[in-house]
Amino acid sequence: FSPGLLVVAGSFAAFRLLNRGLERLVPPPPSARRNRWKWRNIWTSLAHSVLSGGGALAGFYLHPELSKDLVGTHPPGAHSLVAVSVGYFLEDFVDMLCNQKLHQSWELLFHHSVVIVCFGIAVLLHQYVGFALVALLVEINSIFLHLRQILLMANLVHTTCYRLNSLINLGTYLVFRIATLAWMTHWLFLNRENVPPATYAVGTVGMAIMTPMNIILFYRLLRSDFFK
């Protein structure tokens, strides 16, 4: 039994409670009242992105040894942050499964399944915590992706705020999502001799799934916000 599982369970419960209380904290505007669960879901995702993206940056700043050893180094704070993210992705998986039709959410459910497996290995084995923390840098871009959805639901698409967020979203997408995933794929390739076959297979499959998904999403963002 891993103490990390307690953190996962606590995180799941905390994000579930946050999701339930968000409608009081951030009441949906009239344009979002037809889809209240999605309004709550996006704000919950935004809270996780701020926590995990900011936490990942802080982790590499406070523990520079993480960047030198992505496999064996596992400071308690970094390990807990990965466990908290597993709890969030489990909560979001359940939330979408209960409130959205499968044909509308299968891509994200698939994405979450891959992340839960990969991060779960890091939590249980106390290895690859640094690698998981690199993956959490992607959440810095997710902050602006979620803000974009909130502005869309609030019917603020024709505002300066939306346009500015679109530009920042695009820039952070290239730096913290595309470049980060490319670097992770490169790291896996270079370290294939030092990673156990089963773990290497999981990581390679994860990258093979995530990279095309993120390229497709990038194209959709460009088409929607800049080429429309």
Automatic annotation (TrEMBL):
Membrane topology: Multi-pass membrane protein
Gene Ontology BP term (one): membrane assembly
Transmembrane segments: 131-147, 167-189, 201-222
Localization (cell): Membrane
InterPro entries: TLC-dom, TLCD
Residue span(s) of domain TLC: 34-228
One Pfam entry name: TRAM_LAG1_CLN8
An example Gene Ontology CC term for this record: plasma membrane
Keywords associated with the record: Membrane, Transmembrane, Transmembrane helix
Protein name: TLCD2 protein
Lineage: Eukaryota, Metazoa, Chordata, Craniata, Vertebrata
Record gene name: Tlcd2
